[in-house]
Here is the input.
Amino acid sequence: MQLTLDELARLVGGTVSGDGATLIRGVNGLGEAGPGEIAFLANPKYAPLLATTKAAAVIVADGTAVSLPAIRVKNPDLAFARAAERLGGDAWRPAPGVHPSAAVAPSARIGKDVSIGAFTVVEDGASVGDGTVLHPQVYVGAGARIGPGCLLWPQSVVRERCELGARVILHCGAVVGSDGFGYATEGGVHHKIPQLGIVILEDDVELGANTTVDRARFGRTVIGKGTKIDNLVQIAHNVSTGQGCLVAAQAGVSGSTRLGSYVVLGGQAGLAGHLELGDRAVVTAQSGVGKDVAPGVMMSGEHAVETRRHFREKAALARLPEALQELRRLRQEVLELRKKLGG
Amino acid sequence: MQLTLDELARLVGGTVSGDGATLIRGVNGLGEAGPGEIAFLANPKYAPLLATTKAAAVIVADGTAVSLPAIRVKNPDLAFARAAERLGGDAWRPAPGVHPSAAVAPSARIGKDVSIGAFTVVEDGASVGDGTVLHPQVYVGAGARIGPGCLLWPQSVVRERCELGARVILHCGAVVGSDGFGYATEGGVHHKIPQLGIVILEDDVELGANTTVDRARFGRTVIGKGTKIDNLVQIAHNVSTGQGCLVAAQAGVSGSTRLGSYVVLGGQAGLAGHLELGDRAVVTAQSGVGKDVAPGVMMSGEHAVETRRHFREKAALARLPEALQELRRLRQEVLELRKKLGG
Amino acid sequence: MQLTLDELARLVGGTVSGDGATLIRGVNGLGEAGPGEIAFLANPKYAPLLATTKAAAVIVADGTAVSLPAIRVKNPDLAFARAAERLGGDAWRPAPGVHPSAAVAPSARIGKDVSIGAFTVVEDGASVGDGTVLHPQVYVGAGARIGPGCLLWPQSVVRERCELGARVILHCGAVVGSDGFGYATEGGVHHKIPQLGIVILEDDVELGANTTVDRARFGRTVIGKGTKIDNLVQIAHNVSTGQGCLVAAQAGVSGSTRLGSYVVLGGQAGLAGHLELGDRAVVTAQSGVGKDVAPGVMMSGEHAVETRRHFREKAALARLPEALQELRRLRQEVLELRKKLGG
Here is the structure.
């Protein structure tokens, strides 16, 4: 597979500067690319690499100065993603059909063009939509419903009755539908509260490796359409998110908290339970949120406050050791003034 | 299965207000329940839902004002858990017996009424107690001992020689008995320190999805009776806990730290190694504890101090930016006073 | 297997005090050891146990006062590790050869003296080096290369095309080569950016249970020779580390960040993306680093600063509530002085 720069520009919706006949056979990073490869610049931090890259061409934002053959676009990340899909080679997928070693219950409904890998289990009454790939060693519980075009990597788990929409991706070790953490304590004994609900992952959701999403106590834990969740994230029972949220690695959301649409959680951020975060709220990395967040507000810090306020406090804290010395000096001066005044 | 409200009240130990003949066929949340379902109110935050719920009846704390048919109890959470166990339907479990695809070593001892799912491995000399369920794709290492009435969800792992008491629950992806993290460094090389010990999970312990408990360097890592641990928690080598501890998601306990009984760790809390936490100590979410904690004390913050002190510091920090301005003004005034006094 | 204390001292490179003919048959901790066992003292916190231990002998640092038969060495941790390797019994490993239930592709190249356990999958074109052990339920993706002498515990995963050097250890549930977290957002839709690169784990790397290392967007995510990573750690795409780094449990490293050699990350520490940490930099537990760190510098805190500065700020914060009271008193006194002066 190779394309001219002109052809690639049409594909990604950009304009060419330099030689449009340049042949492109692959994609790579600015630092790694060689002859025949196209690279891209999205983060200005890497602009100096434009001078030294061995790439044949580069995808840049409109207005970037560049001497190489280039495609200029509004969103270099997106354009590069499209180029990579075309030129990056196919992702590995198991052969179509059911591997002879897989344990698929007779009552399971398997769609067309499904791949089911070795040692994968599909329990009673589960269904798997058309074109879905279940890699080896996957577990699909009884009555679970996996939509069409999904991709479940090895050792991902969907427990009984949980539901995945279309084009959902589960990375290795992701667990959908584990029990919520709930006990009723009496006389020093923690009695387990049955977790009777399910998890729903709407269309185009992606869960990272070893991420866990607990089933609801009753009703549903819901991850909204197009929400993307990174590795090692914890989503507790009865949480719901709107569309298009982004949750970075190792973040945690406690039970019954509700996120609006396009909410962003930074890495290792933590949310207490029973909160509401409005649309487009942002929680920065490692921050801990203990109360509701209005739409569009960005929160930061250990007991998070608005980010601007947080950094004002942080800046004040950085000056505090010296301020306390100043306070001592002032106290001394006031004492001396008082003496002079016969105080 | 259906019960009258009167019958259900006897089952959960409560008193009825309203029509005791109301028929109850299922359980659900206040927001989700419909005709024939009983809901409950434990968190006062959701009291407004009492006015709008479509539930047929509700379980409430003694003294709660409610116009629906209701069961009044001391502990609505516990009463609802019992109602749910009776009316919530059976949890999924694999058929009794050993699935033909499972790899069970001839030397393994398998109790009565055990279920062993597809592709599950039970290695040499391991034992599995009566009535225990090993879901598909579980791993039980050589010489491991699983007690009676345990429930190991798909893809949970118990490594060699580790021991589980009665009624232990392991959620998907939980790992019991991985090597502790220990190296002896010399000449820039980290030499692995053999981890020769085991893990003991006492009766009624529950480990969440993808939680890891490391085997001891020698001796035992011990999780005490009735301790409940949420998802993605790290328990390092040689840790021990007393009875009935509660550890929320993504918390971490470093090596050789010892927890008393009924200790509570909030989500993402972290404990340094070689500490002692007394009975009923509490560490709030995201806090980091670097020294011993006396019984009953609650600790908070980045380098945790007693929670009351922590919030006093936090409140002071919130006033700090303005206090620094005030300090500057005072300095100016003192300078002017000094001038007036010919200072 | 038993050795005299003299023989063991030669093995670990130490000098004997007390009866060199003492017979040693096993190793154990000071608190757990009994007759015939040797213990060790590395952490001075446990020195009081020297008086009560039932061990037959003990390994201590040169200069430690001890009345038991003892081996004196420079590094008791390392000496004990060597003693444990000799006397601690062999670790469990599956029988050599390929288990009949394993799914090994005909095109896979399997070295000599390899063990492959039940239900393990080795896909097309993968290679497994001499003497490597793949426990049951392991997944090795298409074209992956596993070096010689590696140890992959149950349910560890190496996705397609990733490469492991010699003597690499993967603990249960570790995932190598999951997709990096990258999307190009346009019109409210997060378009997945293909993750075309691989992961390279160099010789002697060890990854803890349920740790995740994402494949590069393009090029390589690299974990350098001899680096040891604990449980539940997240390593994002395009990260690289030098040799001999130590990463404690639940730490997270964001995309494209580069660590030098011998960098140490404490538990639950977090690093932002696109950073450089110099050789021997240290980030203490739970700290969050948002900018480059020079070689040898130790960083601490929520928005980490140099550790010394961090603790100075923390100490100032601890005095802040009282300092604010003092500030109020001073303000009052200045007002009174001003009045006296007719101000």
Notes: The domain at 97-305 of chain B is CATH 2.160.10.10 (UDP N-Acetylglucosamine Acyltransferase; domain 1). Chain B touches chain C through 72 residues (CB under 8 Å). The helical segments of chain B are 5-12, 76-87, 307-340.
